[in-house]
Model the fold of this input.
Amino acid sequence: MDKYDIRPIGNRVSKWGEGPIWWNEKLYYVDIEGHAIVELDPDSGHERTWNVGERVGTIVPMLDGRWIYAGDSGIYAIDLQSGQKKLLADPEAALRSKNRFNDGKCDPAGRFWVGSISLIKAPGSANLYCLDTEGALTLQQAGLTNSNGICWSLDHSKLYHIDTPTRQIRVYEYSIETGQIEQGQLCIDTAAYGFDSSPDGMTIDRAGRLWVAFCHGGCVACFDPKAPYALVERIAIPCVETTACCFGGPDFKRLFVTTGQHKTLQENAAGRVFVIDGLSTQGLPTYPYRGSMA
Done:
């Protein structure tokens, strides 16, 4: 008997699913290469899709019912029902053909953190930014290549972050009052645990353990940053391009995993959303953006 129940849900086959979050009893995620924001009801299987006309790396909810997304041409607030959107920031306009926005989330105080990715894989040319609740954007970390998974410790004193090509999870001292981070240090070197693939999206559970999807690795892994041997377990997913994960469902006991389509492999469930049931842990609610920009 299998330890966990792992299966695809919904009908959409994304080109490159990413950035899942649980909000208002539904799963939301993006299809980066499909230029889409997707809403999925895991119970009914019902899906809704919005095309935003560009690659979109991440989405977060706003308290007023709108959403923030970050993509090819900057950071936007969007009303999914009307399609009306407003540009909030575009700090890398001069790098339009070389960079785009990638993964991001809101911190516990409601600030939006989002990073960029070098499309030409130029080391050190991507960045991590923070959009505060007053609408001011600040550069928080430069010298990255593919800014990816991000989450905060349970006591909000630390920020965990992945720059994918390094295959490392770094940890930063974090101020919940100011939103500032101090110089980061190595937290977990995934290569040291035998991973020959790329850490991508990341979330945290109520035990303070990190759950990481591995692009090109066909798995999700759990790490305990407080333990001498950090790797807790590795869960295989029947799709090589596992991209990101989040907890959701009743009591946040289900782990949802987005996937993408490999350029050359033919896989039956590639691009589907998977759900893992039977885990002995729970996740945390999604933090929304708490700004009130018009």
In short: The chain has one domain: 5-277.
